[in-house]
Amino acid sequence: MAGGQRSMRLNKPCILLIVVAGMERFAFKGVVSNLVTYLTDVVKMSNSTAAKTVNSWCGVTSMLPLLVVPLADSYWYRYSTILAFSFLYITGLLALTSTPLLRTWIPVDKTSGSSFVFWSLYLISLGLSGYNPSLQAFGADQLETDEDLPCTKDEKKPDSKSLFFQWWYFGICSGSLLGVSVMSYIQDTSGWGIGFAIPTIVMIASVAIFSFSSRFYTYRQQDMDVNSKPLQNIFQAIKTTTSKLKNFGFTLPAASNKSSHVIELELQEKPLCRENKDLGDPQKSSIELPQSVKVVLRLFPIWTLLLMFAVIFQQPVTFFTKQGMTMKRNIGRNLLIPPAMLQSAITISIILLMPLYDKVLIPLTRLITRQEKGINVMQRMGIGMVLSIIAMVIAAVVERERLRIASKLESLSETVPLSIFWLLPQYILLGISDIFTVVGMQEFFYCEVPIRMKTMGIALYTSVFGVGSFMSAFLIWLIEIFTSSSGGDGWFADDMREARLDKYYWLLAISSALSLLLYMVLCRYYKSRSELDSENCK
């Protein structure tokens, strides 16, 4: 049995869609990784305005799928959704590419120029909102699993989903690494016109590959079920529940009548097994209407407890980079390492270690847990959360050492004689934590929703990082108010010799540890969708 699992391979459509997703990440990271520089140097925004613009845009980009995906799941085919939103995506990229070219031909004032860039970016966000969740859900649809019959499925089959989501993340990390490293260099040396044109061309090529390969795909029959409309079901559930509250009633059995031992509670509805439901009968399918609401509410506690991981996820592009700017960054006499380049250590660690997950870690955990999968998806996310906490502890210790060395220096320079490579452990640990938590989140939210809501499941996963981005900004704002209220510079002083990022890292570590404890408690009582469906079929 174990040997059979080792020989498991992804089919050709899955591999093709992973390549398409990697090309899309190349295009996206090729734009976003150096966007702050473009906004400050070309659009002439201030540093703070440019940073707020990028943070807000990334937050909206991650949150927007929650608004778009219910429509896609309810009324559109996944294949056609991908093509339609890829058109919006490419249109936004073309508009953004035209901005540096137009500036060389036509004088543009600061207001109109920034407005055009603004609308170009949010057109890209709109395209991404439907494109990414639908593409990943469509990729998972290519797996040969009987997802719609959870009561009869083989318990070994979820491993194919784990394999898919692992290699999906491997693919997008590979594209991200190339986008960050290659495009940042091209934009700095060859200009912004060609720097934005290349991601646009790559994105167009990925859509062409996707559309020309349509004959290879598997189109799930459930994707065409007119009765599977979660958005309509959610509104109908609210209407039905409200109506029943108005006409609520129950009947108690009479003591003398043994045949009337029935208690009728109209608001209690037991979900039916998939084998016993007639999806073509609106009267019968209406019995399951509240389930769309229950699915989201049931996942909400897990979703909430993952937010602190998303907050930690924001640190490499902000304060980790700021730390690196004040440390010794030279190799030899002439080579100076850009602090942002250390972010590639996260992606490189994922690319190098992801193949070892199945080859080394899973066989070891099978020996310990005596389970075919080694660890389940909830345990996988928990391990990643532990690693992220350890990363923040290391970051706090390194920052404290940097401050100690800086306090002994007589010069006014912010640079301290501490190598920037001391930051590598926290970057690498965050990369390893991604292999566990991020991949686990993708599998968890995809598998825990009904098949008609698969795209919504992917949107729930991405929204964790969208809310985490806003939550990180709010936390910084709140800490800044409290720590600078006495007239001091606070924890985030511009002078890095006075800043106390170590305290901020300790705060994140402690908050994440509390979230982890609550998560562990919740995991003891949480029942997966397959477990609930199995109980309903008994």
Helical residue percent?
A: 55-70%
Fraction of residues in β-strands:
under 5%
Q: What's the order of the H and E elements?
A: HHHHHHHHHHEEHHHHEEEHHEHHHH
Cα radius of gyration in angstroms: 26 Å
The unreliable regions are 1-7, 146-158, 222-228, 248-289
Beta-strand segment tally: 6
Main sheet: strand order: 1-2
List the helices and strands and how they pair.
Layout: H1 2-6, H2 12-32, H3 35-41, H4 47-63, H5 65-75, H6 78-105, H7 110-141, H8 158-190, H9 192-212, H10 230-246, E1 250-251, E2 264-265, H11 282-285, H12 291-305, H13 307-313, H14 319-325, E3 327-328, E4 330-331, E5 335-336, H15 344-369, H16 377-408, E6 416-419, H17 424-447, H18 454-483, H19 501-525, H20 529-536
Parallel strand pairs: 3-6
Antiparallel strand pairs: 1-2, 4-5
Helix pairs in contact: 2-7, 2-8, 2-9, 3-4, 4-7, 4-18, 5-7, 5-18, 6-7, 6-9, 7-18, 8-9, 8-15, 8-17, 13-18, 13-19, 15-17, 16-17, 16-19, 17-18
Descriptive keywords:
3% strand; mainly alpha; two-stranded parallel ribbon; 538 residues; 20 helices; single chain
Short overview:
Helix content is 69%, strand content 3%.
Describe the model.
The protein is 69% helix and 3% strand. With 538 residues, it is mostly helical. The strands form 3 sheets. A two-stranded antiparallel ribbon has the order 1-2. Strands 3-6 form a two-stranded parallel ribbon. Helix 5 (65-75) crosses helix 7 (110-141). The chain is globular and about 70 Å long.
